[in-house]
Amino acid sequence: MVDFDLNKIGITFRKKDKENPFVTPEEEELDASEFEEDEIIPKKTKSRRPREDAFTQQRLASINPVLTPKTVLPVYLLIGIVFVIVGGCLLAINSRVDQFTIFYQDCMTAAPSDGTFSDMPESHYEFYFHKNKTFDVAPQWRFVDDTSDDSTERGTCEIKFTIPTDIKKTVYINYMLENFAANHRRYVLSFSEDQIRGKKASYSDVHEAAGINCKPLSRNSEGKLYYPCGLIANSMFNDSFPMELINLSDTSQNYSLTNKGINWASDKKRYKKTNYPIADIVPPPFWEKQFPNGYNESNLPNIQEWEEFQNWMRPGAFHKITKLIRRNENDTLAAGEYQINIGLHWPVTQFNGKKGIYVTHGSTLGGRNSFLGVVYLIGGCISVAMGLVLLGAWLFSGRKVADPSALSWNRTH
């Protein structure tokens, strides 16, 4: 290994430097940036001042109209005239809607049961036909008992009624309920959305869910789930309506009805056929009369196609409700005498309620209801009255527009 001393390296280089005295050390190159002053970056401070633009600084172009009697009065009068015209048109359309209502809640006790018909009390019916406003022929009824049924509401109520003029299509057959408080908070929340959508919901899903759940009707004493569960489904209106109106003058001309198309088409996307095994579910308590032996493969309800059920699951907002149950969009209901036979299953005496049939053809604005037309008329009259008041005030106590004598510094007092 070579013997080598690091201490002699410095001596060697110093000796070489002495032997070359004319060698000058190289000067370091200077950078111009060293003579520049450092840029001072201002500190960002938080500010709540809006952006500097026309919108945030409220410099957008605007119109500042000067309201004078000559500009305000025509507006009031125009609004009033338009409202009165619209209200008159609404009332005219409404007045051409034919309809009639027949209540039958006490058919078991008040109608004859010996096979004969009798006139119904005046409090049980109401007719309105715009071409025959004086029509007042009382409908007739009778009760046909079902001895095999021991329910408090049973049998058939047969009702005969007369139509003086044709009822144009589409004809709607509704049932009407009064004094039924379907808007109670606990009632409207008592159903299972999972069951409605066809899911196989467990007991905890339908009973313990926050807000909307099936309490207090979730399962029976054997632990089987009610399907559909909840108070709304359990109390479903189940009086049976026929699929035709009997034409008493010619039975070959009976008026056919259908239970299809009586509900919103969009509800079919919400209501789905259930995925429950039949052995795991039972009908609600009040459905026992319709399903005395429970569910089987042939009678399990398909709520996706059951439009009467879908209608009922939309509770009414008031104590008086109507629900569509039959319709005919193809034929006009001709003038004549007809009979409808209604199976009695839904009692109303417990809550002093009323039930009946409501028949109408409706209009482009819906059923017969004068409320909207009256509101427009009242609004128009108020607008015209305000215009007349302002006109009188301007004529008798108004001042000249832009009168400089009205300025505060020009007043004498």
From TrEMBL:
GO cellular component: endoplasmic reticulum; Golgi apparatus; phospholipid-translocating ATPase complex; plasma membrane
InterPro entries noted in UniProt: CDC50/LEM3_fam (IPR005045)
Top-rank lineage group of the source organism: Eukaryota
One GO BP annotation of this record: cell surface receptor signaling pathway
Cellular compartments annotated: Membrane
GO molecular function, one term: aminophospholipid flippase activity
Region (Disordered): 21-52
Pfam families registered for this protein in UniProt: CDC50 (PF03381)
UniProt entry keywords in alphabetical sequence: Membrane, Transmembrane, Transmembrane helix
Organism whose genome encodes this protein: Kazachstania africana (strain ATCC 22294 / BCRC 22015 / CBS 2517 / CECT 1963 / NBRC 1671 / NRRL Y-8276) (Yeast)
Major location (coarse): membrane
Acidic residues: compositionally biased ranges: 25-39
Protein name: Alkylphosphocholine resistance protein LEM3
Family designation: Belongs to the CDC50/LEM3 family.
TM segment ranges: 73-93, 371-396
